[in-house]
Design brief:
about 130 residues, alpha+beta, minor pseudopilin epsh fold, four-stranded antiparallel β-sheet, 8 strands
Length: about 130
């Protein structure tokens, strides 16, 4: 007489494949967030450097943000994985921004926004 307690091989394979898929999904999403966070911090730093350079050298600094890189006075810096919606502005010799902007960036379904404010030239990450 055969004992009917326990799992069949097929049931075990189904359970293991479901667990594997869930673990993979839990690993991929945090990686996207870390790429986005790193690239947003990198862009934020580059914009602050451009603002400081404009004030130190008393000259206008042109900033072009394109989908995969930022160009500051013809110096190109590439993002790891992030893509941004294009925009263009400049910092005056006093460090003020030419126009208020909202730079929207993303990695897959993760999104972030840099808000550039007129007057002080402050940059907020949202």
């Amino acid at each position: 007489m055969q004992d009917k307690r326990g799992f069949t091989l097929m049931e075990m394979l189904i359970v293991l494949s479901c667990i594997s898929i869930m673990l993979l999904w839990m690993i991929i999403i945090p990686v996207d967030k870390s790429y986005l966070r790193n690239d947003i911090n990198y862009l934020h730093t580059k914009l602050l450097e451009a603002q400081v350079n404009a004030m130190l050298h008393h000259q206008r600094v042109q900033v072009n943000i394109l989908p995969t890189y930022v160009e500051i006075n013809n110096d190109v810096s590439t993002f790891q994985k992030m893509k941004c919606l294009p925009c263009e502005f400049h910092y005056s010799d006093k460090g003020t921004i030419s126009k208020a902007n909202s730079i929207q960036c993303y990695v897959r379904n993760q999104r972030a926004k840099l808000v550039l404010q007129l007057g002080s030239g402050a940059i907020d990450v949202r």
